[in-house]
């Protein structure tokens, strides 16, 4: 089973700042890495799939990069609605599909 | 508009059973793999199971193998999760999700979830 590790666990930033979230895989997942956003009381929402492809309707301030075992989600300038928990997920070697433990982006 | 609506959750005693349902609309259901994902209170996301378009292939996380069964009815546009021998650690919000076409195992639409609580 591929284990995903996310860092930091919590990121405290102000609106307008740049957020950089990391996801590391225990094995090579090629480019099969996705990112989801989840707000309290809501279902997750797909942001990015296959490392860098934004899902329909996702703003351009969200971008993904990386390959192999190291991946990054960048939010170029935080909007108030971006404060949430972000999960990475791999689909390279499954079952099982696995998720990271999440990074909480909160308001500084 | 794609909609996924889960139902069937509730409070059940350890060792009991529940059957979750997910009603799908707004897309051609039998064109997509479908997935169940769960989230324990205050915890992260855990992939539970998925099923191929025609129901011929099903996969499970090890912790539910032999206890949970995923199925679908393409006439009723519905996804199911039969959960038997429930344990306290199965307590979670259970989400139904659609796998993205051409990027399988990525969930592009999610329901709002149904809560399952296993407790005596």
Task: Report on this structure.
- The complex is a heterodimer of chains A (108) and B (120).
- Helix content of chain A is 0%, strand content 49%.
- In chain A, a hairpin with a 3-residue loop joins β5 and β6.
- Chain A has 108 residues and is mainly beta.
- In chain A, the strands form two sheets. In chain A, strands 2, 4, 5, 6, 9, 10 and 11 form a seven-stranded mixed beta sheet that branches.
- Chain B is an all-beta fold and 120 residues long.
- In chain B, 0% of the residues lie in helices and 51% in strands.
- Chain B is built from no helices and eleven strands.
- Chain B is globular, with a radius of gyration of 13 Å.
- Chain B starts with a strand and ends with a strand.
- Chains A and B meet through β4, β5 and β10 of A and β5 and β10 of B.
What is the alpha-carbon Rg of chain B in Å? Answer: 13 Å
| Largest sheet geometry of chain B | 7 strands, mixed
The span between the termini of chain B is: 40 Å
Assembly annotation? heterodimer
Number of strands of chain B: 11
Helix-strand makeup class of chain B: mainly beta
Biggest interface in this structure?
A-B, 24 and 23 residues
Mean pLDDT rating of chain B? 97
Number of strands of chain A: 11
Number of helices of chain B: 0
Structural class of chain A: mainly beta
Low-confidence stretches of chain B: none
The Cα radius of gyration of chain A reads 13 Å
Assess the beta-strand content of chain A as a share of residues. Answer: over 45%
Tell me the overall shape of chain B.
globular
Proportion of residues in extended strands of chain B = over 45%
pLDDT < 50 stretches of chain A? none
Relative helix content of chain B: under 10%
Q: What is the makeup of the main sheet of chain A? A: 7 strands, mixed
Helix-residue proportion of chain A:
under 10%
Brief account:
The complex is a heterodimer of chains A (108) and B (120). Chain A has 108 residues and is mostly beta strands. Helix content of chain A is 0%, strand content 49%.
